[in-house]
Each structure stands twice: as structure tokens, then as C-alpha cells.
UniProtKB/TrEMBL annotation:
The keyword Methyltransferase does not apply. Pfam families: Rieske (PF00355), VanA_C (PF19112). It comes from Swingsia samuiensis. Keywords: 2Fe-2S, Dioxygenase, Iron, Iron-sulfur, Metal-binding, Oxidoreductase. This is Aromatic ring-hydroxylating dioxygenase subunit alpha.
Amino acid sequence: MHRLDIKQKTDIRLVDISPDFWYPIAWSKELRRGKTIGRYFGRQSIALIRPKRGPVFALENRCAHRQVPLSKGTVEGDSVKCCYHGWAYGRTGKCLDIPYLGKDENREKIINRVRSYPCREAGGMIFVFPGDPEKADKVPFPQLAQVNNPAFKTRQFNPSVKCHYTFMHENLMDMNHQFLHRRQMGQIRARYLGGETGEDFVEARYSFARTGTQQPLAERLIFGKHTYDPNKIQPVEEVVTIRTTYPYQRLFIHDKDGDLVMELFAAYVPNSPSGKSCQTFGLLSVLRPQTPLLIDIIWPVLGIFTNRIFQEDKEVVEMEQRAWNELGGDRNREVFPIVNKLRDLLINNGITH
């Protein structure tokens, strides 16, 4: 099928995200030693198990016996025991023990197993590979902002949003929506500087022209004071680059000297069988100012500022999802070329039913 045909016939909100990538499905801090929790990747229910010793592992969140969630079970050694009858499963998903059967009967019944998932921890997140496990070692692991760079300070954000994951990609890629954030950002206008596309990525670059004197405190503390002179053409103070490298999204801010001052990593993970909700896993790294401890002083201000921005985005994408529900399909009339290229990317790399 040619791309033009795909654009005409495919409703982007019905395109599932490809499972053949590494996806975060929980924060490391959510899973204590000797415990298990359950999470969804789309229609797949997954149990994450952290033994008292050793790394986290991930299994299908259903006992092979009665389909009860293993996330309700008990962690013992390097296995998890179903809460119902005590069937025990190891890291590979193989059933290790059925406690009420004798040894000979156990040997015959232990052919039961559940699916296991490639699993690893990085950047304070637990990742799984929900697709073909044979591809896991060949697929590049995402770069997680600047979490390992001591020159930056990183905060986590994790809003759960009641919308299809594609709305989130469109929201960040299209910086023309700054009017939405006028109460937080003041009066600014995005200036599109161009973009690039490839088989697995779309990138857009912007600067911002301030059209009023109001400048948020968090912005002023990080980037310095920007004055507005209506009689002069404003210089490009910072360049904001948004890049979707399927299936992740990143944002970079470089100052006028070309130095990186802020980086965002975001993954939007479908967390329900309906596909109409997703969990955001975000890492926001900010360059530490030269003044010692200044970043720690401004950190709470930055947190409040970014949370308000995210809440406004959350509200509007959820309104978009409700409109799709009510209209019975995608009625968007997109006119911004880079967003249309983004939509092509998400369709062409996703799973179309």
C-alpha cells in the first residue's frame, strides 16, 4: 500500500504502537524488594517481580492454572507464587512447583509455563520488551536525557493521560499551541525554523518571539532575563528541537552559543486494552548554573511551572480524545506540514489492524 493510500484510509487513533521496542512500564521506586506489581502494555498484562536479591524480572500477569494475576502473588527466592494455589514461576516463566502434587506428578505438570519478557532497569525506570524477544538484543536502547551526566539535574514526571498515545506526540511536536500556555508562559509566538524527516524520525526546530513583557520566573532563572522591545526584531535566544525517533520523543533546548541547556526524554506507553489511555514516562534534565546550589533553590519553582504546563496539555489532549469518541473517528484537519509527516511516521511504524 502506498503512503498516500495509508493516509487516506487509516485512522491514526486506531494504530497500535509497535511492541518491538524497549518501553518503560514502571518507576524503579514503585517496586520494593521482595514485592511484585502489575502493569499494562496495551492489551498485555505484565507482572514485575523484584526478588530480595538479584534484578527485576517480568512475566505474563496470569497464572497458567486459573488465570489469576501473578502480581497478587508472593515473592519467594527467585520465583513468584500465585496467591490462589501457590503455583511457583521462575524468571523464564517455567512453572517450578505445584505444592499439592507429589514429586512424580509435579514432573509431569511442570510443563505449564507463562510468558516471560526481556526486562532491564535504567534511569530510574523498569523497561520491558513486549514484542518478539529474539529482537530485544538487536533493538537500540533509548538515550535517557542526561540522567548520567553530573552537569545536569534531572526530574521525573509521569502523568497518566486518558488519550491515545498519538495525541501526545502531536502535542509536543506542534509548538504552535503556545497560546494554550499563555497564562504560564506569557505572550510568545513560536517561529518554525525548519525540520527533517527519515524512515524512523521526524524533527522540528523552533525559536520563540516574546510579544509581551511577562516572563515566567522559572524561565528567567534558567535562561536569564529576556527583554521585549516592540521596535526591534528579537534575536534567537534559544533553539528548541523536538524529535520523535520512533517510538520515543525528545526535546532539546540549546542557547544562542549552541550549548545544551535542557533535554527531555518522553515515552507514551498505552496502559489499557482499549488504547484510549497512556502512561507518560518523562525525564527532564536541566543544566546546572555556574552558581553553586542555585539549581536546588530554583528546582521547586521549575517543578511547579512544568507541572502546570503538563496539566494544561493533559486537559487538551483528553478533550481531543473525547471528540474522537463522540465523532466516531478522526476528523482532524491538520495543516501544519511537520505534524502531517509525524502522523505518517506513527502510522507507518505502528500496527494497523
